[in-house]
Structures are given as structure tokens and as C-alpha cells.
Fold this sequence. Notes:
By secondary structure, the chain is of the alpha+beta class. The protein has helices spanning about 30-35, 40-50, and strands at about 1-10, 15-20, 55-65, 70-80, 85-90, 100-105, 125-130. The structure holds zinc ion (2 copies).
Amino acid sequence: MGTGIRARCNDCWYSRSFMLGVGMHHSTLENCIGCVNKNSQRKINDLLTSNELVEYKFEYVLAHCQSCFTLMDRPLLKLTLANNQTYQSDLVCKSCRRKQLKVIEPSELENIPCPSCRKTGAMKGENDLLWD
Ligand SMILES: [Zn+2]
Ligand SMILES: [Zn+2]
């Protein structure tokens, strides 16, 4: 079960919903691995063949691209392996493909520039429908 967040700009038409948190269909590790990018999938499969998995955490996070300003929800998988090794899947921008995403909390929306008009301080986040 996750949380829906709507990001809105007070200064232009920009309004988009994002689904954050964990969805029910991501309950198995295989499903979670299937959601992250190919490069991370390879890395994770490599790690799991030679290391024991202690725990994993999967969620959708709100991410802002510092290169093209796109705001998006992205899957993030964190693994903890034996001997305290940790691994976090890559966060890659959907539109420019750069790895310059910054994970933000909905409450931090007002600190980032609007993806459309690029004005800082005009964005705000509000709760949207729940999903599962
Ligand atoms: Zn980008
Ligand atoms: Zn705007």
C-alpha cells in the first residue's frame, strides 16, 4: 500500500500525481528486481550469487532531476547483504537518462523549481488517492 501525492504549481498548469511507497504487487524480491533498471538488475544478480541477502527494502520515491528538472516517481531497491554490505539501485531520469536524481520528500516540493515554468517556491504537494 502506498500514498498518492499530487504536485501542483501555483504559477502554471503543472499538476501531476505520483504514487509513493510500496505496492502490493512488489511483494517478492524477484518482482522488485524486475522494476529497477537493467544495469542495477545485473549488479543485484551478481551480488546475490556470491553474497547472502539479509534484507531488502523496496519503495517508490519522489525524485527530481537536477539536469532536466523533471519530477517523477522512481523505484528504489535497497539491499543489505551479509558482512554489512549494502547496495542501492541506480536512480536514472526517465526523460534525460542522467543519474542526477535527487530524492525529495513531498514537503520539500516548494524548494525545487517547477518542471514546467521552472519557478522555485511555487510548487506544493497534497495528498491524493491511496493505491494498492
Ligand atoms: Zn533528467
Ligand atoms: Zn510552474
